[in-house]
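User: Reviewer 2 asked us to show a designed sequence for the structure in our supplementary figure. I'm pasting the structure tokens here. Could you produce the per-position amino acids so we can include them in the response letter?
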């Protein structure tokens, strides 16, 4: 049995991984300051799991919680792109400074291995697909820059101290429990929420833009492999399906699973960040082309490395994954409304 810390544990991926580790018999410490997490993510099937610690990853007290810990999964961070863009110092303090604090706590406490949750967003300016882990990257949006800098810190701790670190670049992760009842959920969850309320979703551009989407169970199989596999330390892995799916196809699969006849309303791509007017004020407003490019961004990853080194590949198709996600949401909605 291992002692495992998960930072950002009240988020979507971290909570699902934590529950799985508890089911496997591990001791799990769930760290989250609840600025972006939700306590109900830590209640699955009506039961709590692990031990929750309301701690900020930037706290100087962090090392004391790492005593006797074997593995750390570092998921905590600010991930909403417009929030990072509107509050760059905040994003850098948490995503870069917080990662430095986690790595230092791990070093001082003798943690065996750290698994760092990075993002496919660092490929945002790449134009050759599928993207490989060895491809040069030059991100420009604050979120992607912060995660790339955090990746560099992870590599430095490996080179300078011999700390075992694995970097995982998540593509578009989705699945049950992905906060579809929240105010600003991710794409899949947003579509599900709107259809549950019999509202046509408001989408952007024309829906032909394509992204690589990966089901959360596949993601957490790789997370677990990276915890103990001898070939994982010091490596960076793409975490995607290797298949690009359009927004239109995502909507149609969800609508079919939910039995909905609604159709989405498509708005101009430049309206995507209208809820963040501060980005477009002042003498140097954010360029509208940047927003349009973010909406239209194509993503497709090469997963050869994880397959050859770790024996991992995605197993859940987008059709099956969205069906399972939609069915979960409908069951939960029915329970909440008292329908049996």
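Assistant: Here is a per-position design you can include in the supplement:
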């Amino acid at each position: 049995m291992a002692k495992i810390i998960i930072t950002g544990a009240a988020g979507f991926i971290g909570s699902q991984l934590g529950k799985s580790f508890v089911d496997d018999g591990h001791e799990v410490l769930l760290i989250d300051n609840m600025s972006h997490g939700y306590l109900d993510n830590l209640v699955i099937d009506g039961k709590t799991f692990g031990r929750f610690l309301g701690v900020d990853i930037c706290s100087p007290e962090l090392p004391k919680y790492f005593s006797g810990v074997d593995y750390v999964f570092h998921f905590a961070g600010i991930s909403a792109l417009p929030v990072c863009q509107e509050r760059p110092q905040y994003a850098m303090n948490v995503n870069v400074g917080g990662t430095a604090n986690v790595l230092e706590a791990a070093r001082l406490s003798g943690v065996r291995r750290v698994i760092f949750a990075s993002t496919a967003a660092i490929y945002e300016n790449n134009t050759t697909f599928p993207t490989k882990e060895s491809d040069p990257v030059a991100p420009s949006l604050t979120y992607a820059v912060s995660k790339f800098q955090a990746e560099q810190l992870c590599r430095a701790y490996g080179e300078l101290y011999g700390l075992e670190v694995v970097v995982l670049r998540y593509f578009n992760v989705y699945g049950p429990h992905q906060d579809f009842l929240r105010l600003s959920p991710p794409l899949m969850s947003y579509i599900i929420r709107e259809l549950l309320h019999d509202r046509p979703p408001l989408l952007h551009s024309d829906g032909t833009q394509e992204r690589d989407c990966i089901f959360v169970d596949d993601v957490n199989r790789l997370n677990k492999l990276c915890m103990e596999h001898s070939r994982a330390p010091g490596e960076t892995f793409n975490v995607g399906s290797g298949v690009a799916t359009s927004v239109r196809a995502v909507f149609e699969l969800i609508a079919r699973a939910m039995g909905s006849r609604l159709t989405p309303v498509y708005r101009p791509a430049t309206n995507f960040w209208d809820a963040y007017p501060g980005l477009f004020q002042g003498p140097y407003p954010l360029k509208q082309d940047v927003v349009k490019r973010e909406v239209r961004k194509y993503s497709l990853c090469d997963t050869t490395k994880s397959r050859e080194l770790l024996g991992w590949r995605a197993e859940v198709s987008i059709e099956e994954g969205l069906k399972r996600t939609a069915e979960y949401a409908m069951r939960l909605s029915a329970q909440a409304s008292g329908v049996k």
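For the response letter, you might also mention the following. The chain has ten helices and 14 strands. The two ends are 39 Å apart (CA to CA).
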